[in-house]
Amino acid sequence: xxxxxxxxxxxxxxxxFHCRSHADLYKPAVRRGILAICKEFLAxxxxxxxxxxxxxxxxxRFVNAGMLYQxxxxxxxxxxxxxxxxxxxxxxxxxxxxxxxxxxxxVAALARVPATTGDRQGLIDYLRALGGVDGAExxxxxxxxIAAYLANLTTWPDKLTAAVExxxxxxGTPGLAHIDRLIGEIIRIGATTGALFPxxxxxxxxxxxxxxxxxGTLKADPGTPAAGLAEIERGAAMPETRAAFAxxxxxxxxxxxxxxxxxPAEELAAHTHLLGRLRRIKADFGGSxxxxxxxxxxxxxxxxxxINVLLKPHANPTAQLRWLVELHGRLIGLxxxxxxxxxxxxxxxxxxxxxxxxxEPTPLLVKLRVxxxxxxxxxxAGFSPPMQDRLAQPxxxxxxxxxxxxxxxxxxxxxxxxxxxxxxxxxxxSSDILIPDAxxxxxxxxxNRYLKDASFLRSYLGDDDATAKAEKLAALKxxxxxIGMGGESLQV
Length: 492
Prior knowledge:
mainly alpha
């Protein structure tokens, strides 16, 4: 991301970012801003925002970067004085003064760092023992100790591994908050994906692994950093690490590469599967940014020419409409639903799908099943009530007409006794042929008449002994319960 765009995004709502003294540099919002603005410098120098803020040698290297340092200060000043009368040069001088004060504070804090924190166990012991009344100074010194410890680690994998170990040994203590912040910065810089998930080389694999981590379902070698962090987080809150994984997911989704084979149908299936996973674990990782990144990917997948390709494998208009309706249901929560709703509305407006189905030389029962299944998916697809009614009504009408043509109920009435009639009607109601709240209601009323007939129990139970009769009656009540009828009044 160009520096100007990065700063502009970070400065939006710039009150949180506006520093009046060097102490403001350590506020969470400002730290995130520094991470965004200085990301390229941090990535190339292989240091985190914590190290830049708390280790004098890294600060001096940044100040000595010349044009980069001047550009960061100037761009920051320009955005911070928007809407005010403050001259840019005045704000730049203020920022230079804040940086000088921060560098002096870092030197002083480093002098307070106990010598024992130079090795891992000494730092762990120090972080685990944090506490006391002087929280601000102690926290500052703790971060200086962490920055000094990391100074000798010059690769991202080494820093990530060290940070995970520190988190493991400080879990359940105040020290974990400092390590959590550090790990979040390492992940956000984005140079450690390979170290987090060894063996993951594709974009689809990275997205899957990140969602697994966020959803608590990561299956990886216990020795990998991501698996170690997942284990630690199960027992201790790590909000910065979790937020960094959410950012990683959003960033991955923003990349244009395919996440499956690249074929339209497989790409769409992979994306709807991903959306379904996020919905099942009730996740809104990264909030609207993640959803918008996913929606932009669907924009490409659901362009008009892509829709035409995706519809071709579906043999007839009814199958195509059902596919579109099911897709609409999978896109709940994304603005892309409107795109699919437009295709559905256009296809359904002339009832071509109904006319095509009725003309097909297929058995009536097959047509009834197709219409009932289409009606079911319409009810689950998240349409507005008016559109759901507009789609469902012609399906219900065509279905009712076919039920009349098939004379299903009349043929059942021709069975020799009430027991056989009731059994056939129960089977019909249990099938996927009838539409609930339409002809299903009429079928239940007819069944209720059969059950109340004085001859029903006699013909249904026959001459079996009392135990067998009780078992048959219990089985009947279970079947009735599956179609929404209790049968409580039935007694041996």
